[in-house]
Design brief:
Helix content: 40-55%
Largest sheet: 6 strands, antiparallel
Order of helices and strands: HHEEEEEEEEEHEHHHHHHHHHH
Structural class: alpha+beta
Number of strands: 10
C-alpha cells in the first residue's frame, strides 16, 4: 500500500495529529476507489475524494461523520454546515441534504468515516444521561436535527480503535459492538450530546418530531396529511409546522418533495428511463409539475440530467 500511503500528508507524531495520521492511512488502505464505500463493519462507511466535487443530493440517516483530512459542506434547506478535521457532524434524523467536498487533492485526498446509529443505540450508550425533567428540561427543548461539534482526542481515539478492526476481520463480530457503543458514548458526552439524546429519548419534543420525519420519509409517495401527522405528534398543525421546520429547516411539504425527487432520480438512473413512470411511482400526478420541480432541484430536466450523469459515470 506504499503508493496509496504516499497520498497522505505527514503529520506530527503527537496527540490528535498522530491519531489523524493513522486514521488517514487506514482509510486510504480500505478505500480502493473514490466515493462512499462499505466496510466489513455493517454500520460504517468510509469516504474518499481526490478532488473537490460538485453538489450531490442524498438522504443522511442518523449518523456520525468524522473528517480525517479535507473538508465538506452540506446544505440542509438553505442552512450550510462545514466540517473538517477539527470538527464532526451529527445528524439525528433522516435529512435530505446537498453536499460537496470543498477541500481535497490527489496528494491530500478528502478522507472521512460515517457511522450510522439508531435511537436505541444512543439510549444504550448514553448511560447515566439525564432524563427529561431532571437538570436541563430536555422534553421541551428543540434543536436542529443536524449539528457540528468540536473534535476531541477521546472521540478520535474511539474511532481509531474501531477502524483498526478492519485489519483484524475475525475480531469484528465480537468487538465492534463494544467499540461502537464507546464511540457513541463519547458523542453523548460531547457538546452535541444533549441534542442527540433528545432525539432518541421517548416522550421528548425532538423525538416526536423525529417520528413525523420518519413517517414522511417512509410514506413519501402517499398524499401528505398534515392533520394525521399532527395527531401522531400530539400537537396542533401550526405547532407541527413550526417544530418540523426548526428540526429540518424545511416544511413537511418541502421535505416530502425533496425525498420524492431524490428517489425519482435514483429510479431514472437505475430502473426506468421514463420520467412519467418515475414521477408516478414517487407520488406525482402531473408529469409537467414533476419536470418543473425536478429541474428546479437538480438544475436540468430529467432527460438531460440523466445524460449528464451517465456521461460523468462513463468518464470515471
Amino acid at each position: 500500500m506504499k503508493e496509496k500511503d504516499s497520498a497522505i500528508q505527514t503529520m506530527p507524531d503527537n496527540g490528535l495529529e498522530a491519531k489523524r495520521s493513522e486514521l488517514a492511512r487506514l482509510i486510504v488502505k480500505h478505500t480502493s476507489v473514490e466515493g462512499p464505500q462499505r466496510t466489513a463493519i455493517p454500520s460504517l462507511n468510509l469516504i474518499r475524494a481526490d478532488r473537490p466535487n460538485g453538489p450531490t443530493h442524498s438522504l443522511y440517516r442518523p449518523s456520525l461523520c468524522i473528517v480525517v483530512q479535507g473538508a465538506k459542506e452540506v446544505l440542509v434547506g438553505r442552512e450550510s454546515f462545514t466540517y473538517d478535521p477539527a470538527t464532526y457532524l451529527v445528524t439525528s434524523v433522516e435529512l435530505p441534504i446537498k453536499g460537496r467536498v470543498v477541500q481535497a487533492s490527489p496528494e491530500q485526498p478528502y478522507l472521512s468515516a460515517q457511522l450510522y446509529f439508531t435511537a436505541d443505540q444512543i439510549v444504550s450508550a448514553g448511560g447515566g444521561a439525564e432524563q427529561p425533567g431532571q437538570g436541563e428540561p430536555e422534553a421541551s427543548v428543540l434543536r436542529r436535527g443536524v449539528g457540528v461539534g468540536r473534535m476531541d482526542e477521546m472521540l478520535l481515539d474511539s474511532l481509531l480503535r474501531l477502524l483498526r478492526l478492519l485489519d483484524t476481520p475475525d475480531d469484528i463480530e465480537a468487538l465492534s459492538p463494544l467499540m461502537i457503543r464507546e464511540l457513541l458514548y463519547r458523542v453523548t458526552r460531547g457538546e452535541l450530546g444533549g441534542q442527540v439524546r433528545r432525539f432518541a429519548a421517548a416522550g421528548t419534543l425532538s423525538q416526536r418530531i423525529a417520528g413525523v420525519v420518519r413517517r414522511i420519509q417512509l410514506d413519501y409517495a402517499e398524499p401528505l396529511r398534515v392533520d394525521e401527522l399532527a395527531e401522531q405528534a400530539h400537537m396542533s398543525e401550526s405547532s407541527l409546522y413550526a417544530h418540523f421546520k426548526e428540526v429540518t429547516n424545511l416544511t413537511p411539504i418541502q421535505y416530502q418533495k425533496r425525498i420524492r425527487l431524490q428517489e425519482a432520480r435514483r429510479l431514472l438512473l437505475s430502473e426506468t428511463s421514463e420520467a412519467a413512470e418515475a414521477a408516478f411511482r414517487v407520488g406525482y400526478e402531473s408529469p409537467s409539475q414533476f419536470s418543473r420541480e425536478y429541474s428546479r432541484m437538480f438544475g436540468l430536466p430529467p432527460a438531460r440530467d440523466m445524460k449528464r450523469m451517465r456521461e460523468e459515470l462513463a468518464g470515471g
